[in-house]
Amino acid sequence: xxxxxxxxxxxxxxxxxxxxxxxxxxxxxxxxxxxxxxxxxxxxxxxxxxxxxxxxxxxxxxxxxxxxxxxxxxxxxxxxxxxxxxxxxxxxxxxxxxxxxxxxxxxxxxxxxxxxxxxxxxxxxxxxxxxxxxxxxxxxxxxxxxxxxxxxxxxxxxxxxxxxxxxxxxxxxxxxxxxxxxxxxxxxxxxxxxxxxxxxxxxxxxxxxxxxxxxxxxxxxxxxxxxxxxxxxxxxxxxxxxxxxxxxxxxxxxxxxxxxxxxxxxxxxxxxxxxxxxxxxxxxxxxxxxxxxxxxxxxxxxxxxxxxxxxxxxxxxxxxxxxxxxxxxxxxxxxxxxxxxxxxxxxxxxxxxxxxxxxxxxxxxxxxxxxxxxxxxxxxxxxxxxxxxxxxxxxxxxxxxxxxxxxxxxxxxxxxxxxxxxxxxxxxxxxxxxxxxxxxxxxxxxxxxxxxxxxxxxxxxxxxxxxxxxxxxxxxxxxxxxxxxxxxxxxxxxxxxxxxxxxxxxxxxxxxxxxxxxxxxxxxxxxxxxxxxxxxxxxxxxxxxxxxxxxxxxxxxxxxxxxxxxxx
Length: 568
Ligand SMILES: OC[C@H]1O[C@H](O[C@H]2O[C@H](CO)[C@@H](O)[C@H](O)[C@H]2O)[C@H](O)[C@@H](O)[C@@H]1O
Ligand SMILES: [Ca+2]
Hints:
Blueprint: H1 17-20, E1 23-25, H2 28-31, H3 42-46, H4 49-55, E2 59-62, E3 66-67, E4 79-83, H5 90-102, E5 106-111, H6 121-128, E6 140-141, E7 162-165, E8 170-173, H7 188-203, E9 208-211, H8 229-245, E10 250-253, H9 259-262, E11 276-278, H10 282-292, H11 296-303, E12 313-317, E13 324-325, H12 331-341, E14 352-353, H13 357-360, H14 365-377, E15 381-385, H15 443-447, H16 453-466, H17 469-472, E16 474-480, E17 485-492, E18 501-508, E19 514-519, E20 528-531, E21 537-540, E22 546-551, E23 556-562
Parallel strand pairs: 1-2, 1-15, 2-5, 5-9, 9-10, 10-11, 11-12, 12-15
Antiparallel strand pairs: 3-4, 6-8, 7-8, 13-14, 16-17, 16-19, 17-18, 18-23, 19-22, 20-21, 20-23
Bound molecules: the ligand OC[C@H]1O[C@H](O[C@H]2O[C@H](CO)[C@@H](O)[C@H](O)[C@H]2O)[C@H](O)[C@@H](O)[C@@H]1O and calcium ion.
């Protein structure tokens, strides 16, 4: 029973935990500096676990904290089994895992399989000794003309997916930065090395992996080198090993692909791959719908989303450590979003927008609340991004995606309470812009203000966690006679300890108050609407399934549809 994490005091064994969880992405480097080095560390994060428990998150996602030259935020790994000394030591990492588990919080970490840093000893050996044991660990070629149909992903910096190596006098393949050579997955030794790394970290007690850039593992002439059958075969083998040796741990795919392609990363009921996949296309549509003030963009992307196998779950999000990617929208939608959300070219990066949630929404509290309400009620397990719970700002004067990776703002004191170091030695400066200055935007002040965004987000997580239907329930769009109103139900039969429940969510995407008559399916006719937050009774659904709701600007309701089998 090595795999079950049963010994951890705060965790209950639940192989389906990820379907009801709220995730929280936290950069170790950005959260809390315990040593006065200017960068966050494991011990600093341990010191903030009580805060995260209080906030109500169920699982932390830690982006790479491994040995790395940090030329891509740690996604350029130089040793998969070592932690970056500035973050701490391996025993400090395992202490973090234990302390999180003791509070009922799980931890998944990033696993960057597609590529390594060019500083990784495997690459150094590969370029120096083509006939040596690592000679075939990377994708080498005498020409830079192979795989011409593969697009360039980092269009701001790269002009080719091939770079000439003067040592080996051959080109090497890289889907991302030219300092990140792709591993050669055709080589069984590479695949075995990946299994070995998974076992290493799972043996240390982590609860799963986010699989970075997973569509690009294999290459094949005549294709765009994305989502290839061999990649899926490899993932199915990896999953079989995890199920066998580490049941209860999860694999979460980062595949920035259209819904029809991304569902393949779940595999099938008989041949599963990942437990979860991020749903990239839905995220930009939430922002798009807010500006267009229409429900349709959200309705249509969900209509295009195929069913997923039982016991799997989407991962949803509003922001993360990367740019807000616009790869999954049409050119017309992209142009509109750049106009709405990135009027200054400095706000753009690659195919996306390098801004945080609050500045994107011009710090509009009703919009920030509505977009949270959407991501917390639509299908999927939501993943929050550190600092967004207090409405942190960004710094578009920093390079690349560092704009959204600045230190967490804890207090109005020196370095926002993040570090005691000389401010000039911080890994990145704290936000000190007019609206988002850490003097005003910080955890301490928001904890002391009952109406703060922080308390509001916490309240939302509490309500969500009391209603497993948000994680487990079916999703059905409900007809509304107002194009600005998005109405849908989440409903489920009793499931283990979770009772049957039905919830109606109604969202006003307009910047003006709206009324809408909603027509619910027959099964909900005659039910009473009860507000999930305050318990107030609202109108009953008429015998023909209709009910009329009025909503304020950017307002939303979560109603229990009471009167069926579910408890009062
Ligand atoms: O390791 C390279 C990158 O891998 C992830 O990239 C993803 O983010 C890109 C945008 O920054 C996106 O366009 C691409 O489709 C993704 O695979 C990781 O999240 C990045 O931080 C990292 O640079
Ligand atoms: Ca590859």
